[in-house]
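for the recovery benchmark. tokens below, seq after
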């Protein structure tokens, strides 16, 4: 026994030493090879890492746990090493990256394995725990009639609560709605009459000039235009219209986010989670700012969150969902608004379809019909409706950021390595001025000079050139793709310095042209300055720990870990929830730039991801502390006692 303990401790010490070496390799990338190795911090980190490893190895470990831990460990070590190198050198081919990756992988494997075992237990106990938990959940679902179980027999969605749900449900829902709305009122006063940045000016100008296109979501543009016209009719001012839009968006997002909070309470999530979700959605600066920012991403994210809740309800009670026409109608409406508020909402749903058909294969005909209806609604909306309104399709260049960026990178960094034919093929689609303005993390300068209409008519010549160039510049193509996306998956300081400061969130009202401009006239200047520093200077980075809640990579890592946890914990029915996150993330990787607003669905849905982790942990509990018959009875009847 003593030999085994010595061996385990030796492994823990070795993993800790390698982790310290890996961090030093990363420091060498930015030319600070001895900063950590000669410091007291290194000794403290070594001791902490050794302790974590020793504690993990004290308890049982088996092959399946280590296999899943190794998958996560290797993945997170790679993302750390690549992201660090890209942040400082704009390439992953630095000679220190591979040693750093190899040295960090063992300790990351220990950390991921420890997390999986803590939350899900060991594999041989899962089946028994799953059976006991399943029986208890079914018994509780059959006996509940109040807050926790009301959604089993009634319609879902914000519009149904005042019609069908019991009084405790309605009361809690409207409490959440009011709490969220009121929590954003100070932000409205600070940014009065709202935050009209990003694409708002372009959208309103398109309507004013009668040149609507599908480049921006038509429904969102219509909301901006209608509130502006109503405001002008009331006071003759754009400011009034902006205020009306801000209030409308606050109402919509409060209604949708209240559904998320209600779901967590219905499912008897721990108080820290559903109360934390309400506070997080209401008061965290990211959510507060997005609630007042007139960009399509705000309402889309709230719709996305409700869609995730819908999938959870479907997975938990499929027989109830497929027996209810009202539920299925709400599902179709929910999906339609995913399409209507972001163009990549359509691609996200397309990605989900095979997983929906697999997850609900018992009802595959009904599920297939629902998917066809959703796609049919999209076809009608983008076909006859667009034609009747004179809306033209968006430019093809929006889908080509990865293509044009990689070609521009090679043209700038290794023009001598291109043949005359390859140069001509690139210049036929991208003007030289655009190629010379190449920025590795921002595709818009090149995109502005891309011949999108010509590419849409005949893409093959450029694609052939692009493939030909890529065959001889594979590393540059990989660097180009990763440099344009690493802000989404690297949990480090990847916020880029711009002429205006650190561009995390555009806290201002952009000046576009007089007939569409909105001017920020703050009623709370001190609070406005607080939010301006967060958005335009990333002031949150000065606050340890809190800064992580703003980091996009942290939420990506949370998503990846929860997905790994669901797989390890055999939570097959809840895995369907990972499909929309995965589909949406893949569409973001094809975008022109990393922005917080594009990744906002991952931030706003963090409470739901934590809920999934808690579900796995809750299922593990029966194998550590089996419930007696009386305890099961008490737990199933507790739902009836709630909010009486």
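predicted aa per position
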């Amino acid at each position: 026994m003593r030999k085994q303990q010595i061996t385990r401790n030796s492994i823990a010490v070795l993993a800790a030493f390698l982790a310290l070496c890996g961090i030093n390799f990363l420091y060498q990338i930015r030319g600070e090879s001895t900063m950590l190795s000669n410091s007291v911090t290194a000794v403290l980190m070594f001791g902490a890492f050794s302790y974590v490893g020793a504690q993990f190895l004290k308890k049982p470990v088996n092959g399946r746990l280590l296999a899943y831990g190794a998958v996560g460990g290797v993945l997170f070590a790679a993302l750390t090493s690549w992201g660090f190198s890209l942040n400082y050198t704009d390439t992953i081919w630095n000679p220190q990256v591979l040693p750093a990756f190899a040295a960090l992988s063992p300790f990351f494997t220990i950390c991921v394995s420890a997390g999986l075992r803590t939350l899900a237990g060991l594999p041989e106990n899962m089946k028994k725990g799953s059976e006991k938990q399943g029986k208890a959940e079914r018994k509780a679902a059959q006996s509940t009639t109040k807050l926790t179980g009301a959604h089993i027999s009634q319609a879902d969605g914000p519009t149904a609560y005042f019609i069908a749900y019991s009084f405790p449900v309605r009361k809690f829902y409207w409490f959440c709605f009011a709490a969220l709305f009121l929590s954003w009122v100070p932000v409205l006063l600070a940014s009065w009459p709202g935050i009209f940045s990003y694409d708002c000016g372009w959208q309103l100008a398109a309507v004013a000039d009668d040149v609507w296109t599908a480049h921006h979501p038509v429904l969102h543009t219509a909301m901006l235009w209608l509130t502006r016209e109503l405001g002008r009719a009331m006071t003759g001012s754009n400011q009034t219209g902006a205020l009306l839009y801000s209030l409308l968006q606050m109402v919509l997002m409060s209604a949708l986010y209240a559904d998320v909070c209600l779901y967590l309470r219905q499912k008897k999530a721990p108080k820290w989670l559903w109360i934390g979700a309400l506070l997080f959605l209401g008061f965290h600066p990211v959510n507060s700012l997005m609630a007042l920012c007139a960009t399509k991403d705000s309402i889309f994210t709230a719709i996305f969150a409700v869609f995730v809740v819908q999938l959870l309800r479907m997975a938990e009670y499929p027989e109830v969902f497929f027996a209810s026409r009202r539920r299925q109608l709400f599902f179709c409406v929910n999906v339609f608004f995913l399409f209507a508020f972001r163009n990549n909402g359509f691609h996200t749903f397309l990605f989900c379809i095979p997983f929906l058909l697999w997850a609900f294969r018992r009802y595959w005909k009904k599920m297939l019909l629902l998917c066809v209806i959703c796609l049919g609604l999209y076809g009608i909306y983008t076909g006859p409706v667009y034609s009747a309104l004179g809306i033209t399709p968006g430019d093809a260049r929006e889908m080509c950021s990865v293509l044009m960026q990689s070609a521009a990178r090679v043209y700038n960094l290794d023009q001598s390595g291109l043949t005359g034919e390859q140069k001509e093929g690139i210049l036929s689609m991208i003007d030289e001025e655009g190629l010379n303005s190449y920025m590795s993390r921002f595709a818009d300068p090149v995109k502005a000079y891309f011949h999108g209409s010509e590419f849409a008519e005949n893409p093959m010549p450029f694609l052939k050139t692009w493939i030909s160039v890529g065959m001889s510049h594979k590393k540059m193509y990989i660097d180009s793709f990763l440099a344009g996306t690493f802000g989404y998956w690297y949990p480090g300081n990847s916020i880029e310095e711009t002429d205006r400061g650190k561009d995390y969130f555009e806290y201002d009202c952009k000046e576009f042209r007089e007939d569409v401009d909105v001017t920020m006239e703050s009623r709370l200047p001190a609070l406005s300055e607080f939010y301006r520093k967060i958005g335009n200077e990333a002031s949150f980075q000065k606050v340890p720990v809190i800064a992580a809640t703003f980091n996009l990579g942290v939420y990506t890592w949370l998503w990846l870990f929860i997905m790994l946890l669901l797989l390890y914990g055999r939570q097959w029915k809840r895995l369907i929830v990972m499909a929309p996150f995965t589909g949406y993330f893949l569409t973001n990787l094809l975008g022109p730039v990393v922005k917080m607003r594009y990744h906002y669905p991952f931030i706003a849905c963090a409470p739901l991801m934590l809920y999934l982790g808690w579900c796995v942990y809750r299922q593990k509990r029966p194998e550590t502390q089996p419930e007696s018959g009386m305890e099961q009875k008490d737990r199933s009847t507790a739902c009836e006692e709630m909010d009486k």
